[in-house]
Design brief:
Largest sheet: none
Structural class: mainly alpha
Strand content: under 5%
Number of helices: 3
């Protein structure tokens, strides 16, 4: 398994509370929720490295 990149993220306290509740509703940690949201956004924008890599085509 590849080690994940660590970095500091500063959020407005109200935004953090919102993310914290959303994460709890979906049984995730805040960190996992943020990663899920970002991954989904990247995928929806067509910017996922896996989607742009012709060698990852499984057809």
């Amino acid at each position: 398994m590849t080690e994940k990149k660590r970095f500091l993220l500063r959020l407005h306290p109200e935004l953090y509370r919102t993310l914290e509740k959303w994460a709890a509703d979906e049984l995730r940690s805040v960190n996992a929720q943020i990663e899920f949201i970002l991954t989904d956004a990247v995928r929806k924008q067509g910017r996922s490295p896996e989607e742009n890599d012709p060698s990852s085509n499984t057809d």
